[in-house]
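If your schedule permits, I should be very grateful for your opinion on a structural question. What I wish to show you is a protein chain and, alongside it, a tokenised description of its three-dimensional fold. Would you kindly read the sequence against the tokens and tell me how you understand this chain to fold? Here, with my thanks, is the record as I have it:

===
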Amino acid sequence: MGKIKIVIVDDSSFSIAFIKNILEENGYEVVGEAGNLEEVKEVIREKKPTLVTMDMTLPGTDGLECTRAIHEIDETIKVIVVSSMMDEEIIKEARDNKVSAYIQKPVDADELITAINRVMASDELYELLQQEHFAVFKEGLMDGLNRMTKTSLTYKEEYASDKEYESDGMTIIIGIIGKFSGRMLIDLSKETSHNLATALLRREPKNTDELLAALGEFSNIVSGNACSILNRKNKALGLRVAPPSILHGDSLFISTPNFRTTTAIAETNFGDILLNVGFKRGEEKWI
């Protein structure tokens, strides 16, 4: 975890001193303080902190207005509320304003440090997932094909896209849950579907249901093995796969999710297979 620079926002000199002492004793750098909205804007622009501890009750403003002002300057700055006020309504408002954690005064040192570690580690964990997941899923498809059909594949194209695309005839979607949620999608033509299912079953499929079951299980194995590899890289990911959803037919259009995905085209003995995978941050879990 890189150096974390912290600004303390509170109108109480006692609270500032108390929180600052906890943070500095635990190796964090306190780079500034603020007690009202204008001071908040000034110190954020000048000091460019990584994280802000935020009191909810401030002269002429409140912690939520200050949080919005911080994120207008830099939306990547994490805000942890440290306040004597804590009820369901205000917690909901804090979530809606992209507060990352909520600590009630009097401040417990262990609780505050744990909250900071979890909030900041989440960024690193998501970055790890974004950097490594697609290579792992590509390897998962290659390994699954090799183990289940004794054939290999070659990736001939890779790209990111946010546009709707037309299916070749059959799409298998695997939902993924855990610390971050996402999906794996495999798309292939009717001919490729039949050829692959025949290789998986080692005979012609008896009917459409058997073909769909074979392709669904193949996709489930590919995604499950890939998630297992990622979990071994960092068990905090806790990735799990949902049962496959299979769409098939003519003129089938697949919409893009509201998060970034990457696509690769695999050339196989059975025909081309499209692999598409992506993850989103989702809502952070508070402690």
In short: The first helix runs from residue 13 to 25. The two ends are 20 Å apart (CA to CA). The helical segments are 13-25, 37-47, 63-73, 88-96, 109-149, 190-201, 208-233.
